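RECORD TYPE: inverse folding
INPUT: structure tokens
STRUCTURE:
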């Protein structure tokens, strides 16, 4: 795998990993990298994958394909066209605060 593709995959993971509606799905082709798929409901609305020279977004209903130079360009497109796909992940309590809240009954 080329260095650029590896970097794009890491940046996609950093951007999408915990956001609501996004999931990482394997491809059926052996050795093919997994796709990030977004859905507000079933089936997925679009998928995103890393390329050597950028990022590819495929709208599944229309089969439209959009290439982006990098993850920043994808982020800008999502902000303009699908801001719901960039919702912040729910906050989680960590460590002692999480345990404390588990044992507090109010």
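DESIGNED SEQUENCE:
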């Amino acid at each position: 795998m080329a260095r650029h593709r590896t970097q794009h995959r890491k940046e996609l993971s950093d951007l999408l990993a915990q956001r609501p509606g996004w999931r990482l799905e394997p491809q059926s082709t052996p050795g093919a990298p997994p796709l990030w798929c977004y859905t507000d409901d079933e089936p997925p609305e679009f998928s995103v994958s890393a390329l050597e020279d950028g990022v590819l977004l495929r709208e599944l209903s229309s089969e439209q394909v959009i290439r982006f130079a990098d993850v920043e360009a994808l982020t800008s497109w999502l902000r303009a066209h699908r801001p719901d796909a960039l919702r912040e992940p729910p906050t989680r309590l960590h460590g002692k605060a999480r345990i404390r809240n588990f044992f507090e009954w109010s």
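NOTES: The first helix runs from residue 3 to 16.
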